[in-house]
Write a structure and sequence with these properties.
Blueprint lengths: L5 E4 L5 H8 L5 E4 L10 E2 L1 H20 L11 H4 L1 E2 L2 E2 L1 H28 L6 E4 L9 E3 L13 H18 L8 E5 L5 E4 L9 E4 L4 H8 L4 E5 L25 E3 H8 L3 H22 L6 H9 L1 H21 L3 E4 L5 H12 L4 E4 L26 E4 L2 H9 L8 E3 L8 H4 L9 E6 L6 H16 L4 E6 L7 H11 L6 E2 L4 H7 L2 E4 L4 H7 L4 E4 L16 E4 L2 H12 L7 H12 L6 H11 L3
Parallel strand pairs: 1-2, 1-6, 2-3, 6-7, 8-11, 8-13, 11-12, 13-14, 14-15, 15-16, 17-18, 17-20, 18-19, 20-21, 21-22
Antiparallel strand pairs: 4-5, 9-10
């Protein structure tokens, strides 16, 4: 019988930690990550159950906003309210993404402790400590001495944009429709006016085509705000952060925001807001609450919420001063844009959001309960790409049907030009659209299996299109290839639609790119070994093909090479109708017409 400790591993181990565990006798090891231990067997039940835990944690945080607090006995969404507006919706997504790993580990440990039939010592190698009695080995915390220095690039950008904003404030912007811009969201995008030639612009890859069309409309202006992005440094500062083709018709928010802080009445109002939140949350933390982790997360968000309230108030006054007709943006539920929407609502200006990526039942930015409706966290109108996405918002969330409309996907306006410039490849060109993943082991497994598979298929060429959120793409894929003794894969950072037009087949795990490849009538392979197709793409047999292993992938690739893959064009056409309304080059014009129709 084993008499050594039970060991739980939920993080990568150092070499010394591996040596220590291997020196022990009669040890049971439970692991939710891939670790390099010799001569030990592991149980896999933890990983199999973790998928269910994800939904449980998601539901737990969604519902938490409407649980009654211990001390004051009111809903948390009410406790986080100020002047009849709840600030709970700013931080739901942040709480989920930040505390999901911690909560998941706690559930795993409770599950394991209930299985243990003896009282041997429990040793836990984790990034966190939990309420389970055990010996915890957490990694040493590294103090980032340069964290304050990292603020300097942002401050330089803020100050320069403030000065530019001062001069722009003298321009006439009254009675206009407003479109939000993100000057830091830059990627190479095909220039729509180039009509098929490969000319790029460096711009916001979500709404460049709509922004460009609005640039030439007399009743549209832009509001530009450089919100602090991760990884900003002096070397990453670009001219477009300060001056770009939209500057002449833009309002730089930095100037108006900074100017507001010279008003003592405004400062007093901000102080009252912060004090109100802090006092309410502190009372709850003083009690022996079962949700101290989430409440602690809410408390750590007080400064963020105070900043968002200040932005709201400034934008509210700005909207009234300029008599805006409407405000429109993508990322409408991300907190810095949401602050603009709330400010616009307070000034009675119509707000219009539009879809920028996948909407699914586990997307915290889009999922609301019937109880949430009383706080009206939605934009006044929500534009989706197609009825498939519209129905999710209505049936899986609580969006009012009258406020959701399908008009198409902005980026598809380039497709009519691209399809006349198709490329014939000598080898089968396979594009893998990678993406960040909340589980590093899933990301690693997909990457390793694909690199190994295509290293043995000389009739194929593999290209990887990293997701814009994969800031570590170069180092990550090089490291994985090196660990497999393979050459580094070819990465492409060209416009996504140019890459889709030039490839023969797309592989992805669970990405919006699935839909976009079908727009080009390209076969899509979902590499999904955990049956985690939350978007339901695999339902479209004949357009989407699922591989759950290298063997199944080999079967599909071979049938493509042999030209026997059962592609169903009728299914592809039906998919396009459901997912993006129409690919006719007129999507941007439909958006503009709708914005004008719903204005004051």
């Amino acid at each position: 019988m084993p008499d050594g400790p039970n060991i739980v591993v939920t993080r990568p181990l150092s070499e010394s930690e591996c040596r220590y565990i291997e020196s022990l006798n009669h040890v049971s090891v439970f692991s939710s990550v891939k670790i390099n231990l010799k001569n030990y067997s592991f149980i896999d039940e933890i990983n199999k159950k973790s998928g269910g835990y994800i939904q449980d944690i998601f539901d737990e945080i969604i519902v938490f906003g409407h649980k009654k607090s211990d001390v004051q006995g009111i809903e948390w969404a009410e406790l986080l309210s100020f002047k009849n507006q709840s600030y709970w919706y700013y931080i739901r997504f942040t709480l989920f993404s930040k505390y999901y790993p911690h909560i998941l580990e706690n559930k795993i440990l409770h599950e394991l402790s209930s299985r243990l039939t003896n009282k041997r010592e429990l040793q836990v190698y984790s990034n966190f400590e939990h309420d389970i009695q055990a010996t915890y080995y957490t990694p040493d915390k590294i103090i980032d001495k340069g964290s304050h220095f990292k603020m300097f690039p942002f401050l330089i950008i803020f100050l320069i944009r403030l000065v530019i904003g001062f001069f722009l404030s003298f321009r006439k912007c009254k009675n206009k429709h407003v479109l939000f811009l993100e000057p830091y969201t830059l990627q190479k995008v095909l220039d729509l006016s180039s009509k098929g030639s490969n000319r790029f612009v460096l711009s916001d890859y979500y709404n460049e085509y709509l922004s460009d069309k609005c640039l030439h409309q007399n009743d549209f202006v832009f509001i530009s705000d450089f919100y602090f992005p991760k990884g900003i440094s002096f070397s990453s500062i670009k001219k477009q952060f300060f001056i770009n083709k939209y500057t002449s018709k833009s309002i730089y928010f930095e100037y108006h925001f900074a100017k507001a802080f010279f008003n003592p009445i405004f400062l007093l109002e901000i102080f009252r807001f912060r004090s109100c939140l802090k006092n309410g949350i502190s009372k709850e933390l003083s009690s022996n609450h079962s949700n101290k982790l989430l409440i602690g997360g809410i408390k750590s968000s007080i400064n963020l919420l105070t900043l968002m309230y200040a932005r709201e108030r400034v934008f509210e006054k700005l909207a009234k001063r300029y008599c805006f007709k409407s405000v429109t943006c993508h990322h409408e539920q991300v907190y810095h844009h949401l602050s603009f929407f709330y400010g616009a609502k307070k000034s009675k200006v119509p707000t219009i959001g539009f879809q920028h990526g996948i909407i699914h039942p586990r997307h915290m930015h889009y999922m609301y309960t019937a109880v949430d409706v009383k706080f009206d966290p939605f934009p006044d109108y929500m534009i989706t790409w197609g009825d498939y996405w519209k129905n999710i918002l209505i049936n899986k969330s609580s969006y009012p049907e009258s406020r959701v409309i399908s008009l198409g996907q902005i980026r598809t306006d380039i497709i009519p030009y691209l399809i006349n410039h198709k490329i014939v490849n000598e080898k089968l060109k396979v594009l893998y659209a990678s993406q960040p993943h909340y589980r590093a082991d899933v990301r690693d497994r997909i990457t390793k299996e694909l690199l190994l598979f295509f290293s043995n298929r000389t009739e194929c060429e593999l290209f990887i299109k990293p997701h814009p959120g994969e800031k570590d793409a170069h180092s990550y894929f090089h490291h994985i290839a090196k660990s497999l003794h393979l050459q580094s894969p070819v990465l492409t950072f060209d416009d996504l639609y140019l890459s889709l037009n030039s490839c023969d087949v797309l592989i992805t795990h669970n990405s919006t790119v699935t839909a976009e490849a079908i727009y080009f009538k390209k076969p899509v392979i979902l590499y999904d070994f955990e049956d985690s197709d939350v978007s339901g793409f695999s339902r479209f047999k004949g357009a989407v093909f699922t591989a759950d292993s290298p063997n199944k992938l080999n079967e599909i690739i071979s049938s493509i090479l042999n030209k026997t893959l059962p592609i169903d064009e009728a299914v592809q056409d039906d998919f396009i109708r459901q997912f993006c309304f129409a690919i006719d080059g007129n999507t941007c014009q439909r958006y503009i017409d709708f914005i004008r129709e719903k204005s004051k």
